[in-house]
Write a structure and sequence with these properties.
single chain, alpha/beta, Trna Endonuclease, Chain: A, domain 1, five-stranded mixed sheet, 8 helices, 5 strands
Length: 362
Amino acid sequence: MPLDNATIAILMGLGVVVLAILWVAMSGSKSRAEQTARLMQMAETAQSLANAQAALAGRMEQAQADTNSRLESLSKRLGDGLTEQTERTGQTLKVLHERLAVIDSAQKNITELSTQMVGLQDILSNKQARGAFGEIQLNDLVTSALPKSAYEMQATLSNGKRADCLLKLPNPPGSIVIDSKFPLESYSAFKNSETDAEKAANGRAFSASVLKHVKDIAERYIIPGETAESALMFLPAEAVYAELHANFRNVVEESFRRRVWIVSPTTLMATLNTVRAILRDVHMREQADVIQNEVRKMLEDVGRLDDRVGKLETHFDQAHRDIRQIRISTDEVARHGAKIDALQLGDGDETPALLPGDKAAE
């Protein structure tokens, strides 16, 4: 069992007293009075030491209690901090897991897109497939912008040529042909040129390819009396269209001279919106003509109604005159009835008295 602080202090005091007694016993040459004084002084010193020891023990206990309290408070704060940090870490891991899921989904989409891009490259590498790609894109743009009655896909003209799309517009300007062309091979060769000589040669080849398409469209799809005086060449790639207008102005000007307008998906959509506005205006004019015809017929009906009302009014006037004549006749009948009622019959050959205003009997 451990000793408390008071017991330790008493034991230390007794030890001091024992040491003092031993020292006195060993010092026989000194007087007993001096020894007694020294013993008293040593006892007081021992008592002071014991008191100091007790105070020190109390302070140590208080310090130990304060230290324990602070350790408990620190431990509580550390525990709360660890709990909060654990919760934050869990939330962070949850958010991180969600983001990783999004990244996995995006990675999957990228993989699918890469597969689709490879498929698109395979499509564009084949000339027939590339033509079908342009026709499909043209069909999507036209069907999304115009009503079905305003166009015809794969329309056959009188010269036997089949157009990718025929816009049915009223005269003027008349029906307009849209033909899809995609000179991707010559364009790719021009863009992939490494030297100036290759770039110049490939540029001439690209220009010649586009001009050939322009010439073919002008000869096949501009028919006097059947189509408009111009046609559209649809390029399903904005990059090819931009390259033509940026570096091949001669090709663009030649297309203007042949009345073949080169359009891209963006400019074609703007053109189709203009066509839709024209068709709406034509429809409104047709409706206005119908309205004018109906108004004209309505005015004719109003005129006939006015004549019939006049005739009915004449009939009403005649009926009024007839009623007035009937009224006169009824008045005469009433007057004669009153005369008869006032007649006095006499005896023999007496002549009845005449009423005022009657003529004398002849």
